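Long-time lurker, first post. I've been practising inverse folding by hand and with some scripts of my own, and I keep getting stuck on stretches where the structure tokens seem ambiguous. Below is the full token string for one chain I'm working on. Before anyone asks, I'm not after the true native sequence, just a reasonable design that respects the backbone. If someone could post their per-position residues I'd love to compare against what I wrote down in my notebook.
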């Protein structure tokens, strides 16, 4: 009886070990096998904005070139100035089949609240471009030039302006412009580009900033009038629109457009994405996207991207404190 009991115990233990080993091997994946499953691509803002446009273009290039062997599901998970979308990515720690694109809110949202994550928590793939902005008014506005805008704003004392995200690059840009020119702003944040534009054209906002790629069609149609470009050089498509530097406003920040994975993913997953995105940025389709959307090509990979995020976060924090936003 004792022998039978001992054999039964050994058999049970053996089954347990085999089951555990089987479960481990089934849930693990080697570098050689990656990637092999459907990818979930989170866009932390609504449709139509710069983050959305870039993410969908990257997915298109990846699929057109056959760089990813399985399906890619793209989902807009907007809310809380990016807190919802990147919070979702944070919840997928260790899962290399989730990915997202960055914007300025990726750095500024944790500075003004506690969403449960900071840029440090994620796995950094790379910076692929930076994005500058246009200050615009309704095309029907009597304001024709940047000087008209400054006079209007100073006469009124405080103007109602909007942008994407709560304490984001859009807010920083308009705060710096207002401080330089001597007026105040009431800033209204939006999660979707369409809502932002509708608010301007309906008269709810007196001005707004947005990336050229998101509004150039409305500018060319006359629905919006550009007054100032925040980049260092004038846009070729809008040669009559002055830059901030021309008006004495120096060091206006740009929007960082990069790619991140969840925390704690295997190194081989990050390495695969770095190698793949280095192929993507060399493509003619990517260069056309940069040109059409007036993005600046700016590439940093892995640890260099991490260092850039640290420096940029420190710069944003300093500016926001100076503006009294933190």
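-- Answer (accepted) --
I ran through it position by position. Result:
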């Amino acid at each position: 009886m004792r022998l039978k009991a001992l054999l039964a115990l050994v058999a049970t233990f053996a089954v347990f070990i085999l089951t555990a080993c089987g479960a481990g091997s089934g849930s693990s994946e080697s570098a050689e096998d990656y990637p092999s499953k459907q990818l979930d691509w989170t866009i932390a803002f609504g449709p139509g904005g710069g983050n959305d446009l870039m993410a969908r273009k990257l997915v298109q290039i990846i699929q057109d070139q056959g760089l990813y062997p399985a399906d890619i599901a793209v989902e807009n998970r907007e809310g809380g100035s990016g807190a919802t979308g990147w919070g979702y990515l944070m919840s997928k720690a260790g899962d290399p089949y989730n990915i997202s694109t960055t914007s300025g809110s990726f750095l500024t949202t944790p500075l003004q609240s506690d969403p449960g994550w900071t840029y440090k928590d994620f796995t950094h793939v790379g910076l692929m471009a930076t994005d500058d902005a246009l200050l615009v008014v309704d095309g029907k506005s009597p304001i024709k030039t940047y000087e008209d805008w400054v006079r209007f704003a100073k006469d009124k004392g405080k103007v109602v302006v909007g942008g994407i995200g709560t304490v984001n690059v859009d807010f920083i840009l308009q705060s710096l412009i207002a401080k330089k020119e001597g007026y105040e702003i009431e800033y209204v944040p939006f999660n979707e580009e369409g809502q932002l534009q509708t608010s301007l054209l309906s008269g709810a906002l007196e001005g707004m900033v947005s990336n050229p790629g998101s509004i150039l069609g409305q500018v060319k149609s006359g629905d919006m009038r550009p007054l100032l470009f925040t980049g260092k050089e004038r846009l070729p498509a809008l040669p009559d629109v002055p830059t901030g530097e021309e008006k004495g406003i120096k060091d206006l920040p740009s929007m960082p457009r990069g790619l991140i994975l969840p925390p704690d993913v295997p190194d081989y997953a990050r390495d695969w994405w770095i190698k793949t995105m280095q192929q993507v940025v060399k493509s003619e389709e990517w260069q056309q996207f940069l040109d059409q959307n007036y993005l600046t090509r700016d590439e940093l990979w892995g640890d260099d991207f991490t260092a850039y995020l640290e420096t940029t976060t420190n710069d944003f924090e300093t500016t926001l404190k100076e503006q009294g936003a933190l």
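A couple of notes from the structure itself: The chain has a mean pLDDT of 89. The two ends are 74 Å apart (CA to CA). Happy to go over any region you disagree with.
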